[in-house]
Amino acid sequence: MRIVLGVSAGIAAYKAVHLARLLKEDGHHLEVIPTPASLEFVGRATWEAISGRPVTTGVFEGVDEVRHVSLGQQADLIVVAPATADLLARVRAGMTDDLLTSTVLASEAEKLLVPAMHTEMWQNPATVENVATLRQRGIQVLEPAVGRLTGKDSGPGRMPEPEQIKSRIDQLLGDHDAAATWHARSPRSGAQYHPGPGTVAGDPDSVPHGPLTGRKVVVTAGGTREPLDPVRYLGNRSSGKQGVALAQAAAEAGAEVVLITGIIDTQIPDMPVDMRREGLETASQLQEAVTRECQDADVLIMAAAVADFRPASYARTKIKKTEDGESPVIALERNPDILAGTVRRRSGTGTGPAVIVGFAAETGDDSTDPLKLAEQKLARKGCDLLVLNRVGENLVFGQDTTEIWILASEQSQQKLADEDPVHIKGSKVDAAGAVVDHAAQLLSADSQR
User: Fold this and answer.
1) Are residue 208 and residue 145 in the same domain, yes or no?
2) Which of 86-90, 162-166, 399-403 has the highest mean pLDDT?
3) Cβ pair 15, 161 in contact under 8 A
4) Which residue has the higher pLDDT, 147 or 243?
5) Is residue 320 part of a domain?
6) Burial class, 161, CB count within 10 angstroms (exposed 0-12 / middle 13-18 / buried 19+)
7) Which CATH number fits the domain that encloses residue 36?
8) Residues 158 and 206 in one domain
9) Is residue 67 within 8 Å of residue 55, measured between CB atoms?
10) How far apart are CA 278 and CA 23, in angstroms?
11) pLDDT at 194
């Protein structure tokens, strides 16, 4: 594959050297385009030695090759790592004041930007708006890592490790290879089917066909982590097993699946046809991904265990025990309600998933039955289906078996043949099949109206 590696002027440029080596070791044709200022961090000779190619930074170098256009036209993928706040702003504005931004603008290839900057710059409203706009245009922008920055600073804004970036690149190039092999069109949106395990390139009969063929299904899985300081976080016990099983069931039913994971403790098997994964960490990151992916989704299945609360402030250094023996007081604030927010957007705009499935993990108590709590949550959230898990010590979390009840809203009950609620006790694969089947029934009922 022909990969353009752009390097902008940040201290994290030293990590890009290792990324370039990893890409070369995989046999890719690598063109490195540093910005002029980035050469203050890593010199031209280093890039030329690793890539085996001449390295230029301006549009008036290599004029005979028209490099500011040809490099982008020939690329299969453009990666910018690190991508500084300045670089993000210039790409968003469509500026072409150096070879890197000219190449980005002149290319129709997939683009992956890997931000790296101080926390205040990453969280500045200007950067937040720039990132949102770039993502809306179809450019992949990775979330930065949380950790040590330049000097004593810590927080979100650290460039992910080269191996993590390489993993994302491999995923993007895998999608590129599959799309180039077979260009069959989806009846829903014209999106390309991507052959996966068990399929034969060029053979439409090998693509799973089922009740969700041509539909886009977004599945969330796993737990979230809310950083407290550079080494601690608030989290939960979710393993992500049920969410992964749901994604597989939807893909086997013919859907184009987007699996959005928080922190998971389970193996994800080879992706079936038309499944791609996006891994995140915090509730806010999950909300952003769900909002983006649900713009053209038919079904949302919110199986992720999203933290209800997060620390009201992030300590940039590790919280220490004090000599007086006093324990710190940690103030919490509410996280966004992703499920309810998605329902509200659908109601307000008339757009979004036709079927929204929520999950309720309840323990119950001596006076309250979990099923009653789930019924109350279904009414409060306004989703179409709600899946109840009775959880507790050695129950559900991390297990391969589960016990669920599927509850339907009053409007959805009229479209389903089953009595409400439906009770399933068995494997998480069995539970996933039942949930996906109910969602497909609701979609079918809507399409026949």
Assistant:
1) no
2) 86-90
3) yes
4) 243
5) no
6) middle
7) 3.40.50.1950
8) no
9) no
10) 21
11) 32
CA distance 235 to 33: 40
Phi-psi region of 260 (alpha: psi -120 to 50; beta: other; left: phi over 0): beta
Least confident interval from 140-149, 190-199, 293-302, 347-356 = 190-199
Instruction: Give the span between the Cα atoms of 197 and 180, in whole angstroms.
Output: 16
Least confident of 9-23, 373-387, 404-418: 404-418
Rounded to two decimals, the pTM is 0.56
In a domain, 116, yes or no: yes
Q: Which of 83, 85, 104 is nearest to 95 (CA)?
A: 104
Which of 173, 206, 230 is a domain's end point?
Answer: 173
Burial, 40: exposed, middle or buried (Cβ in 10 Å; 0-12, 13-18, 19+)? exposed
d(CA 388, CA 39) in angstroms, rounded, equals 56
Percent of the chain whose pLDDT exceeds 90: 49
Q: What is the pLDDT of residues 223-252, one digit of tens each?
A: 999 999 988 999 888 888 999 999 999 988
Q: Are 211 and 255 in contact (CB under 8 A)?
A: no
Residues 211 and 157 in one domain: no
Question: Token match 């690190």: residue?
Answer: 82
- The larger pLDDT score, comparing residue 221 to residue 365, is at 221
- CA-based angle 299:305:309, to the nearest 5? 120
In this structure, are 353 and 435 located in the same domain? yes
Greater confidence (400 vs 384) lies with 384
Q: Give kind and range of the element (H or E) at residue 275.
A: strand 275-279
Residues involved in catalysis? 236
Structural domain that includes position 358: 189-315+328-447
3-state secondary structure of 122: helix
Write down the mean pLDDT value for the chain.
84
Question: Cα 336 from chain centroid?
Answer: 17
User: How far apart (Å, rounded) are the C-alpha atoms in residues 297 and 311?
Assistant: 32
CA separation for the pair 93, 130 (Å, rounded): 9
User: What's the average model confidence in pLDDT over 313-339?
Assistant: 90
Alpha carbon distance 158, 180 (integer Å): 34
Kindly report the number of other CB atoms within 10 A of residue 427's CB atom: 15
Nearest 5 degrees, angle CA 104-CA 107-CA 109? 105
Give one word for 3, left, alpha or beta, with left for phi > 0 and alpha for psi -120 to 50.
beta
> Do residue 165 and residue 202 come from a single domain?
no
